[in-house]
Specification:
2 copies of one chain form a homodimer. Chain A is of the alpha+beta class. In chain A, 34% of the residues lie in helices and 26% in strands. In chain A, helix 2 packs parallel to helix 3, helix 2 packs parallel to helix 6 and helix 6 packs antiparallel against helix 9. Chain A is globular. Chains A and B meet through helix 1, strand 2, strand 3, helix 2 and strand 4 of A and helix 1, strand 2, strand 3, helix 2 and strand 4 of B.
């Protein structure tokens, strides 16, 4: 196993040269980013812990590296930001050799290249515990235009991208021992793929900012029921979800509460629905109205077979098990 | 133990309100930072792993939280940047209760307040392994003015702030079972304090940028011998350190190779030495010339008792033990 400095030198060779927004990348005490005039900088950080967020047997190292970045790109998507630079911290147990790490970086850097994201820094350590990955990411968005969680208004329509529940169904299959290689039906394969190789909705986030069609947005990392609650809490209003409208090939339970779907959930004033239809057409992405926002104090509801019930936030919580 | 969302809500209440450079803090998919016009954004990330970087018995949770931020502030200092926002990821073993965490945050947020740094985001997870802390930090520096590692020229003088070797000596005492409470001599107490409560040289970094007195800088996280090697490698030149000039109350070994000192090592053209003297006076900080930079290919040397020897980089490596 190489020394810390050999590892860093190796990764630096593989990471793309600093260019454009990234003035100085790996190799100094910090990276230097040059924000475009009129833009703001958007930053988030995501922690992935082996045996909490992933199991090494579930996917290849390439796919795990890819997913580590995808999760952070999804945060940029939810803000409507252009992703720019990533900072990767790895706590490495000795069971992971250089070959594993090389493949992990291939996945990470490959997805970065696709979205124009430079690996601009990071940190390494050994650990006696599980493999731990932290990704901090920066992006840019036109000043004052970031998609926040707090802008939804009563009367706005509730939209979601893509379809729901596949990641949760895939997780269950992985936990039962199925893998990408042993999945025998197309549905299982899609579900597992959705869990191990999510596609961040970066283009959609940008389209929502550029058209001004959304008043608020969040990505579905914890699950629809929990993430909708976050959106309502931050906007200070209520919402109703119509069960019959949920785009899913899986169970209602998975669609409502399944985590790690990485679709966008967003609010659209009724007068701007045509813009959403245009975006759906142009990006060839399913964008489905699944409910509406209600006045403050209305709470968060599920309408099902003509009856309403409270939609409890039962998505993912890393301290509940 | 609270749920993930309760924990986040609690920390959000304690973190200072977004203001100034931080437009949007904890509570959305990402933070939004508004860079001042004419400034660039500086970003770094640092990973601290229990039993690799620290031992819970060595200090209080307040001091550990303080140090987690201090290490990142030191990166901002080395770039000459004004620190702005921090992003804290914690992988928490079940042995750490809410009381421990509250105290950890007190230390972290307290130091943040002192340097005007807002805790603007983060992530939590449980873990079956050691306590792991990752801090990503952002700062701002006047465009094109960041202190890089790559700007030193042959003939520049090599300066270091403060004194050397105390953190390594403190670490050795901590490893032998001594603590802040049981240290019986002032020297042991200073050494342990230096290790568990380092003071980042943020004001010095700013002074070096504003006066234009330094051509390159790095912070001493790995140890003088290793960090000087980084500086020489990035600048493509050699250097000589004079052993007799090293400011230390500890052994030459500790001064040369001891890690986590968090002083700044920097290059100064001879014509600008008066500016350094002025900064030392104004900041009441010892700034000591310890050597000079040499032409490319000269290597990195130690001059001792009139003789030269190669200065091997024997600082800290997280994969060597």
């Amino acid at each position: 196993m190489g020394s810390e400095f050999e590892r860093i030198a190796n990764i630096r060779r593989r990471a793309s040269r600093p260019a454009g927004a990234v003035r100085l990348g790996i190799g100094d005490d910090a990276a230097v980013l040059h924000p475009e005039s009129g833009f703001e900088t958007v930053v988030s950080t995501d922690l992935l812990v082996e045996d909490v967020h992933f199991d090494l047997s579930w996917s290849t190292p390439e796919l795990l590296g890819r997913k580590a970045l995808a999760v952070s790109l999804s945060d940029m998507a939810a803000m409507g930001a252009i992703p720019r630079a990533a900072f990767l911290s790895l706590a490495l147990p000795s069971k992971l050799d250089d070959e594993y790490l090389d493949a992990f970086f291939s996945g990470f850097l490959g997805l970065g290249d696709r979205f124009g994201v430079t690996l601009a820094g990071g940190d390494f350590s050994s650990t006696s515990g599980p493999f731990i990955v932290n990704v901090a990411i920066t992006g840019e968005v036109e000043a004052e235009r970031a998609l926040r969680r707090s802008g939804a208004q009563p009367g706005d329509l509730l939209f979601v991208s893509g379809s729901l529940g596949s990641s949760a169904a895939g997780l269950r299959q992985l936990q039962s021992g199925m893998t990408l290689d042993t999945a025998s039906t197309g549905m299982d394969l899609d579900a597992i793929r959705s869990h191990v190789a999510p596609s961040p909705r970066v283009e959609l986030g940008r389209a929502l900012v550029l058209t001004g069609a959304a008043t608020a947005a969040i990505d579905l990392s914890d699950g629809l029921s929990s993430d909708l609650r976050h959106l309502c809490d931050e906007s200070g209003i209520g919402a109703v979800v119509e069960a019959s409208l949920l785009p899913t090939h899986f169970s209602l339970e998975d669609a409502l509460h399944g985590g790690e779907q990485y679709e966008l959930l967003f609010a659209v004033p009724p007068a701007l629905v045509q813009r959403i239809e245009l975006i759906a057409h142009q990006l060839k992405t399913e964008l489905t109205r699944i409910g509406r926002f209600e006045h403050p104090g209305a709470g968060v509801w599920l309408e099902r077979d003509g009856r309403g019930e409270v939609l409890e936030p039962r998505g993912w919580d890393h301290f509940r098990s």
